[in-house]
Structure formats: C-alpha cells, structure tokens
Amino acid sequence: MDDIDGTIFGKSTEREILDLERRGLLPKRINRFGDHYLKFLLAAPERKRLLLDLLNSTLRLTGYEPLEDIEPMDREISPRGDGRKGIRLDYLGRTASGRIVNLEFQNRPTGDFAKRALYSGSALIYGQLLSGEDYDGIRQTIFVGLLDFPIFKGEAGWYWDFIMSHPKSGKILTRDMVLIFIETPKLKDMLKDLRRKARAGVVDMEDPETRLAAWGGYVTSEGVDILSESMVSDEVFSEVMKVEKDFWGDKRNRFIQLMEERRELDAISELASAKREGMVEGLAKGEAKGKAEGLAEGEARGKAGTARRMLARDMEISLVADITGLSEDEVRTLAE
Hints:
By secondary structure, the protein is of the alpha/beta class. The chain has 2 domains: 11-30 and 251-335, no CATH class; 35-188, no CATH class. It has 12 helices and 6 strands. The protein has helices at residues 11-22, 35-43, 48-60, 113-130, 188-200, 208-219, 224-230, 235-248, 251-285, 287-312, 317-324, 328-335, and strands at residues 71-72, 87-94, 100-106, 141-147, 159-165, 172-183. A 6-stranded mixed beta sheet has the order 1-2-3-4-6-5. Helix 3 (48-60) packs across helix 6, helix 10 runs antiparallel to helix 11 and helix 11 packs across helix 12. The longest helix is centred in the C-terminal third of the chain and has 35 residues, at 251-285. The radius of gyration is 21 Å and the shape is globular. It starts with 10 loop residues before the first helix and ends with a helix.
C-alpha cells in the first residue's frame, strides 16, 4: 500500500496522485525546462555547485571573471510585471564580492526580451542605490537569459554578451551591467558535433563553449543522450543525472509537472482568447490599448482559474503561489 502522508499536499490530492499513477495518467517524460524541475535542480542550496557550474561556463566563454560562490537574494529589488510571462526559473543571487547575478530561463518570447533584460539589469543597479550604496560602491550586475527561442533571427551565433561601449571606437563606458543571452534553438549543429566527439571519446569538457552547449542541450532535452551515455565521468553532470533520477522517481513531482502542463495550456488558451477579445476591443478603443488590456485580463483569469482548481485539491497556498506565479495574498483571497 502506498503511503499517503499529506505532508506536501492535502490527503485528497495525495489520493488523486495515486489514482493517476495507477491509471497511467501521470507524465511519462520529464520536462527539463519546467519551472518545478529547474528550481529543484539549480535553486536548492545543497546543489549550489550545479548552479555555479552553469553560470561559470557562461562567464568563462568570453573571459568574464568566474564566480566563487553565490547566495540567493531577496527578490524585492527585482522587476516584476507582465514581462515575466513564460519564465521558468528566475534566480537572483549575490557573490561574496557583491556582484549580483540574475539567471532566467524563458520558454517563449514576450515582447522585446532585450528591453526586458535591460530593465532587469537597470533595476538591479537602482536597487543597490536604494539599499544605501553610493555610485562609487555599485557592484557589477550580470543578467543571464537562457532562452528556448531565438532573439537574433538570421544570425548564426547562439551566445551573446553585451556591455556599454562606443559603437565606432569600441571604447568601454562601463562593465557595471552585463547582459548575456543564450539561444538554445541554435545549438543543434554544435550538439551534433559534440555527440560525434562523445562517441569518439574526445570531448573536452573543460572547454567553456562545450560545457555551456552541454548545459543547453540538457535543459532543452536535445542533448541528454550525450550526457547520460558519454559523460558520466564528469562529476557535475553525473550529479545532474542522479538528481533527475531522484526527482522523477517521486510521483508528486510528476503530478506537479502535470499541473504545470495544464497551466501552460490554460495560459495559452486564455492568452489567445484575450488577444482576440483585446484586438476586437482595440478597433474601438485603440489597438495598442485593447491588446494590452486583453492580454493582461486573459492572463489574470488563467492564473486565477488554475489557482482555484489547485485549492480545490487541498494544495498548500505557498505551493499554489509558486506554481501559478500569484502572490500568497492573492491565493488567500481566491481561497476565501
């Protein structure tokens, strides 16, 4: 008899999970780009070295100073708003030297992502001033966006790093804000080459480009076979595969993924409906205003509907907030 302890969900939800498992309705494949899994893999304090490996592979690729340590920060200084739609993991950390790192995984384009990243980096600098730093004491902020879509279409490159510099002379104004974008859909050719090298046993995992490509191939599931079959001797990726096995072995995690997938479908449906409604309204009130209001209202309805269904299953308010992106106070209001 399976144990139902009710420590994560209410007892009715635990019974539902067991019923779904018996009927074979829980997900059969792990979504490595899913919010719950990415947080489990990279945001847990006991797996900090995995997060550091990913970040340092990103920084070393173009010669930025690697991170020795990182600790999670209060999210109050991080921007929030409509631009957060589609984000899978949003991790904010500070190093011992005071450098601030914001790592985001995003699965779909939402407006001008470059401008969103610029806003995020600027907000992190402004947050330092609000916390009492003067201009001379501002520490470097690094925004890393690992994207499951291209933002520079038609360009062959998949790794982009930007600082403020003069366009003609290349004179650097400041390195206080670094914006880095990794476009995972463009990794296919590199992963083919990496797969060939892995089979021949000539992969150089100390090469930052190879290592970052391996990370990109893993989280998008395009290169998992490379890691699981050919790189088990690598300590970091060996741990990654163990963590995945532990995660997927817990039926509760598979249930949460199912809820995420349903939420995603609900959001897509709601946004599509809201976009149609907003565009119709926009013909009368102004297209830009109509679309914005329609999208915002549609997203709000989708989140609220998902939250109500989760609350009906006796799920904890904190977990509902984590999965839907609503605040705990908003979830409590829906529960009343």
